[in-house]
Specification:
With 163 residues, the chain is mainly beta. Helix content is 6%, strand content 45%.
């Protein structure tokens, strides 16, 4: 019964205006009951694609947590936080030209409505040269491989040092 009735959260529509730096995110619930507690751990950054996506080349535009214990997401009403970032004016043409990459990554941590919690990790990379513009980055959780670590790693766009 828990599997059939629980909350299932995911990232829905995402829109971004590169000129203003405004992000509209939508967290949707495809389950049957509301999630009584939702937290969004978010990271948005740019990097010089010529040098690769490494710890040293990342310039974070936003990094933080939205929501919390009182943030609820029902099956009929999504949670839609707006995040404002400031891309330096000299970097906007570099992102638009594909010289700089842009990455939105994070994890939605939420209560299923029962005595369980769940995570929905996500990662999207902006590719100015692709007609689609946004590409999904594969995500996996290293916490299951390495004890005492809760690090999300996204291949291709987010390279981490794995010991």
């Amino acid at each position: 019964m828990v599997l059939a009735e629980r909350a299932y959260l995911s990232l829905g529509k995402v829109s971004f205006n590169i000129d203003t730096g405004d992000w509209d995110l939508q967290i949707v619930n495809s389950g049957r009951i509301p999630s009584p507690a939702v937290r969004l751990d978010l990271s948005i950054y740019i990097f010089d694609a010529r040098l690769g996506n490494t710890e040293k080349t990342r310039e974070f535009l936003a990094k933080g947590v939205l929501g919390g214990d009182d943030t609820k997401v029902s099956p009929t009403l999504p949670y839609s936080p707006v995040v404002h970032t400031t891309i330096p004016e000299d970097k906007i043409p570099l992102v638009k030209g594909g010289i700089y990459g842009l990455v939105l990554s994070g994890v939605i941590r939420y209560s299923t409505g029962f005595d369980h919690a769940d995570d929905f990790p996500f990662c999207f990379g902006y590719n100015a040269m692709d007609p689609v513009k946004w590409e999904y980055c594969a995500v996996f959780d290293l916490a299951k491989r390495k004890q005492q670590k809760n690090t999300l790693v996204q291949d291709r766009f987010l390279q981490s040092e794995i010991e």
